[in-house]
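Hi all, long-time lurker, first post. I run a small reading group and we've been trying to get comfortable going from sequence to structure in the token notation. Rather than ask abstract questions, I figured I'd post a concrete chain and ask someone more experienced to write out its structure so we can walk through it together at our next meeting. Sequence below, copied exactly:
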Amino acid sequence: MFEGKVAVVTGSARGIGLATAQWLSEGGARVVIADLDGDAAHEAAAELPGETAVWAGNLVEHGAADALIRTAVDAFGQLDIVVNNAGYTLDAPIHKMDDADFQAMIDIHTVVPFRVLRAAAPHLREPAKRERAEQREVFRKVVNVSSVAAYGNPGQANYSSAKSGVIGLTKTLAREWGAFKINVNAVAFGFIETRLTEAKTDESRIEVDGRSVQVGIPEQTRSMLAAMVPLGRPGTTREAAGAIAFLCSPWSDYVTGQVLNVSGGVPFGMSA
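-- Answer (accepted) --
Happy to help. Here is the structure in token form:
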């Protein structure tokens, strides 16, 4: 399904990002694994069945998005699929949230996808211009990862705002890039089993910019969330990534500007 395609997947050393890379690689794509954790990124790349390249670094840093896209083009000579998946959470009620934690979520979840897509634009648009002149239709794909939290979630004013921004970015680029046969869509995930939603313990931490960030959800809250899901359980990373793979596939060639809620039937979200 993805034979001959080159894909960049951010945050792809583990979790939903890695599962997405696996779907794409199994389908024949050459995949750039991009992650903050270089060791994990190389380990992930070694697990995939197809050709891979690795970019390791902090995408929030200036110039990082350009370096990532340059890695893909230098390695494989083209770019066909971009999945903006990298991110994490910094939760607190708004009266206890400081400016830095609010800005950090905007930076990783909204500014980084903007920069990645700006860097990718020439490599997605210019081939399309030539194909249009030749009266050929070749579709390229962008999938931005949002969240059902974009529609509002207590304790996540920063994350919700950032993920709402992803939806606005998606719908705008779908209109700007439609003429170039670039499908731009988003997925909004609900309760998916990842490091961010595991049972919270003192050891439930990730390292970001030398800072130890608490992740996870209290077990009581996890049980309540699971009880809200009509399908009766959290989603797996493979299931979550399957939705991304669909939006990267030829099956979605006439789908653009959409937000696909992947929540097991939890009635979050907007109809538009």
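A couple of things your group might point at:
The radius of gyration is 18 Å.
Strands lie at 6-10, 30-35, 52-56, 81-84, 140-147, 182-189, 205-208, 211-214, 259-262.
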